[in-house]
Amino acid sequence: MEKYKQELDRISAILKNFYTAKFTSSEKEYETNKTNKQQIRQLVVRIKQDQDLSGAEQQYLVNEALMLLAKNTGSAEDSEIAEQILDHLFLS
């Protein structure tokens, strides 16, 4: 479980750095934002597949990951990205 907490911290730092970064175009900014947030989706999938975690541990980690996504969703662009991630998670 500790490795997933560390991964959440790593992704959190990446997201924090994103908001202070400078980009050459709005397209590059969008793609970077999407790529960064896709890491949350990938992490949730790995957590849900990890048979070594108890159900309670999985639920805790998934909740933390989704809270991280929610805290980093503010603009319309962010909402679009979050919606794509959530759609993928609920359909898988």
Summary, kept brief:
The chain is built from 4 helices and no strands. The chain is mostly helical and 92 residues long.
Secondary structure topology:
Blueprint: H1 2-18, H2 26-49, H3 55-71, H4 76-91
Helix pairs in contact: 1-2, 1-3, 2-3, 2-4
User: What is the gyration radius calculated from CA atoms?
Assistant: 14 Å
Overall pLDDT, averaged? 95
Residue share in helix: over 70%
Structural class: mainly alpha
Q: Could you give the count of β-strands?
A: 0
> Distance between the terminal alpha carbons, to the nearest Å?
22 Å
The H/E string reads HHHH
| Residue windows where pLDDT falls under 50 for at least 5 positions | none
Number of DSSP helices?
4
Shape: globular
Biggest β-sheet strands, sense, barrel: none
> Strand share of the residues?
under 5%
Characterization of the model:
The chain has 4 helices and no strands. It has helices at about 1-20, 25-50, 55-70, 75-90. The protein is globular.
